[in-house]
């Protein structure tokens, strides 16, 4: 028995591979039934009291937090991680400014949907519209997606010919530029931010009996439905010609170009699609909060987004979803240790990276890549 066989049999990666083989061997109807049961469980989660988490139940609100609200945050972070995984995990592009696209989506619904937006007030005065007029929430969705994709193309056009650390520095600057611009211009509300951001039922008010500010369960169900839809679409895209081109560019850009894959074109596609998903998550986040201001979109949040993908397992959608849930939930779980939670959080990230550098649930392709590199280093030594 070779070393690799032993690793696959007894190691963590081997246990995962064994589970994956057993799952693939099940009849299709059993897999479909298990998936449906899992989805039902996800929708039922707001009513479930997790052992040891009774302070997060929906019938017990403490320190402004509740279980459904935490679940909504987890769902939004999962959507962010899936979008960033397209850029990092599939196309192999290190984007440290993803919070910029998140901000574009949030400010899109705020600037065009809020009656307190300077842009909406200007349109009201120019065309003699009612003071209650604003763009409908459903119309803000395509606006946010289009603006984000345009931003992704504008950022990627001049920068995607860079590689590695140079691209990371440029994207980090993009995220900071977005934050500084919306802080210093009048049409974005400036440092005071924008309130009265609408949801599916319009601006926050007592008439919003479903998508209000108190009960977060409908918001969680909306975010969860969006995540399931995006998972289906991204999975189809990953298995398409575009997805295979992304993997080829990630593994060896020069070899992909020789084989007829135009790297710049497909990297630009990855940036635009990732930007759209980031904007969609930002739109949901801003609509739920009802208020945004520039400091909510800082570089620290962008680093957290990258950590979700790295910790969960770059290239594997289930892995990045798990990383997003953990990094969204753990700070809320240990909120009572506010003075120490970031220290513990940082130490946990270091430990995970030391013990599982490939991530908690890495893709098989990514695991093989890391193993090959370790063998190359061992041979070189």
TrEMBL record:
Bilayer topology annotation: Multi-pass membrane protein
Subcellular location per UniProt equals: Cell membrane
Q: Which residues cross the membrane?
A: 32-50, 70-91, 96-114, 134-154, 218-234, 268-287, 299-330, 342-361
Q: Pfam families, alphabetically?
A: BPD_transp_2 (PF02653)
Spell out the molecular function terms from Gene Ontology. Answer: branched-chain amino acid transmembrane transporter activity
Its cellular-component GO annotations read:
plasma membrane
Organism of provenance: Actinoplanes lobatus
Q: Which PANTHER family does the entry mention? A: HIGH-AFFINITY BRANCHED-CHAIN AMINO ACID TRANSPORT PROTEIN BRAE, HIGH-AFFINITY BRANCHED-CHAIN AMINO ACID TRANSPORT SYSTEM PERMEASE
The name on file for this protein is Branched-chain amino acid ABC transporter permease
Assigned keywords, A-Z: Cell membrane, Membrane, Transmembrane, Transmembrane helix
Q: Which residues form a coiled coil?
A: none
